Known about the structure:
The protein is mainly beta and 184 residues long. The protein contains 1 helix and 13 strands; from the N terminus they run βββββαββββββββ. Helix content is 6%, strand content 41%. A hairpin with a 5-residue loop joins strand 1 and strand 2. The longest helix has 11 residues, at 94-104.
Amino acid sequence: MPATNKKIRRVVVGNNKDGLSQVIFDSDMPNVHRRPSSPGTFFNEIWTSDLIPAAILSSEDTSPANGNLRHSPPEKGVHWRLVQSSGRRVVLSDADARSSHAAMNKGGVSQLKEGGRHWNMHRTPTVDYGFCLKGERHLVLDQDDVLITKGTIVVQLGNWHAWDNRSNVAVDMAYVMMGGEFAS
């Protein structure tokens, strides 16, 4: 299990006051969080916009989300992250799962499913685009599991789910999460 995540270079480009393109940030990922329940899992927070459409003329680094790990994007915004997971499978008790979920759910929009098939069965009012860059994970649903392998794209529409690495191989997945509303 890695003690630290693999360093990732993040380059952010935009426009200066004269409308000319320029590099705004070029450094290692500035905002990396170790997942509370899984010491070998790191959330690399790439960029967050509080509102869509986003203010693209701003050069303010919106990725930190006030320096805290935030499981979900802003309610009307978008969040892009890269999750690096070790090959170590994690299983938590119900109490530890609730504690882990609470630590990651500072915004309060993610819901943990009591009695779900997996200890981390949850949902968010978001449209999520996931892309498996390396390794494989099982997407655990209410009644089925779907094996997600390198090159697979997943679109989630606010569904109950959990992610489970059963391969003992490290996994990298990128996610773009857009705030939404559950249909009534």
